[in-house]
Amino acid sequence: MTLTTADADKILADNFAPWVIELGLSVESLGAHRAVLRLPWSGLLAREGGSLSGQALMAAADTATVIAVSVARGSYGPMTTVQQSTAFQRAVTDSDVLIDAVVTKLGRRMAFADITMTAEGTEEIAARASTVYALLG
């Protein structure tokens, strides 16, 4: 099955905790083993000094991985984060963030992904993450 952006938005709405849904993430595009999500700017997600909090970026990267793995598998199924590593490279202020998650290896029980986060309108990387997921179903 090939997922559409509407399918992926439904995965977000149906399978995540209310606080993750409140981040306002939306699916921008899907490709082979890839999902690009948008994290809209919100002052509620800013830390002292006005930059987007690392916690919000990490949650967005983790969530984008679920969508990318679902795309790679052709449908959503139960999965859980085993490991996530995030490196922050520059602050994001007053800008949406595009989260590009790419599944680099999809096995029967494990999936690996690399995530790049950039402030909209720039090509400068704000953060990078790598994730490992256990596929439960």
Task: Tell me what you see in this structure.
With 137 residues, the protein is α+β, with helices and mostly antiparallel strands. Helix content is 26%, strand content 39%. The protein has 3 helices and 6 strands. It has helices at residues 5-15, 18-21, 54-73; strands spanning 26-31, 34-39, 79-88, 97-106, 110-119, 125-135. A 6-stranded antiparallel β-sheet has the order 1-2-4-5-6-3. The longest helix is centred in the middle third of the chain and has 20 residues, at 54-73. The model has no long low-confidence stretch (mean pLDDT 96).
Order of strands across the biggest sheet?
Answer: 1-2-4-5-6-3
Radius of gyration computed on alpha carbons: 14 Å
What are the segments in which pLDDT stays under 50 over at least 5 consecutive residues? none
Order of helices and strands: HHEEHEEEE
Q: Kindly state the number of beta strands.
A: 6
Instruction: Tell me the quaternary state.
Output: single chain
Helix/strand-derived category reads alpha+beta
Largest sheet: 6 strands, antiparallel
Average per-residue pLDDT, rounded, comes to 96
Name the beta content range: 35-45%
Portion of residues in helices? 25-40%
Gap between N and C termini? 16 Å
Per DSSP, the total helix count is 3
Overall morphology: globular
Could you provide a short overview of the structure?
This protein has three helices and six strands, in the order ααββαββββ.
Topology diagram in text:
Elements: H1 5-15, H2 18-21, E1 26-31, E2 34-39, H3 54-73, E3 79-88, E4 97-106, E5 110-119, E6 125-135
Task: For this entry, give a set of tags.
137 residues, alpha+beta, six-stranded antiparallel sheet, globular
